[in-house]
Task: inverse folding
């Protein structure tokens, strides 16, 4: 790892710890916000021990990163290892990003997809799957993001209403 790469990795880690969202991509790549759940959170969350997924529909052809909104849901250690998986509509794994997330400043946790991200087809459906232990919960809302929905163990998160997890995707042309 070059000194520049180490500095960038250290910067990303430091920003993640203080709860700041910053997105980085390879030099010359313009990383922009693509899909966002703008809904206001009203204290609903579910832990990451179950199969929790959020569908989304990108408008850019390359997915570079994903930010999820978390809460410390249960007492435990000061950190947990989380796994973000990006799946296509058929359930094929396109990317897996694993990182250790600390409880301090976990509100907006950023997962950067390595190697300049992955190719996606704008307008098609993709899934974000988030896994971890009982420490963190993924925040969700009733309604929210209109181009997707949240699932819990393969079924709608809420039986009585459409719901969505809080997230943001970053992409490039």
Result:
């Amino acid at each position: 790892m070059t000194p520049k790469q180490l500095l960038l990795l250290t910067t990303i880690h430091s920003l993640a710890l203080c709860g700041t969202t910053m997105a980085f991509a390879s030099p010359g790549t313009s990383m922009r916000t693509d899909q966002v759940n703008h809904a206001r959170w009203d204290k609903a969350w579910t832990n990451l021990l179950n199969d929790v997924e959020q569908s989304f529909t990108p408008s850019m052809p390359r997915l570079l990163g994903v930010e999820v909104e978390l809460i410390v849901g249960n007492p435990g250690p000061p950190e947990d290892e989380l796994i973000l998986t990006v799946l296509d509509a058929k359930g094929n794994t396109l990317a897996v990003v694993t990182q250790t997330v600390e409880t301090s400043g976990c509100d907006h946790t950023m997962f950067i997809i390595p190697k300049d991200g992955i190719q996606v087809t704008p307008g098609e459906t993709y899934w974000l799957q988030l896994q971890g232990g009982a420490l963190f919960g993924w925040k969700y809302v009733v309604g929210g993001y209109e181009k997707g929905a949240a699932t819990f163990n393969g079924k709608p998160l809420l039986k009585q209403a459409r719901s969505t997890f809080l997230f943001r995707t970053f992409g490039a042309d």
Observations:
- The chain has one domain: 3-172.
- The first strand starts at residue 32 and ends at 36.
- The chain has a mean pLDDT of 87.
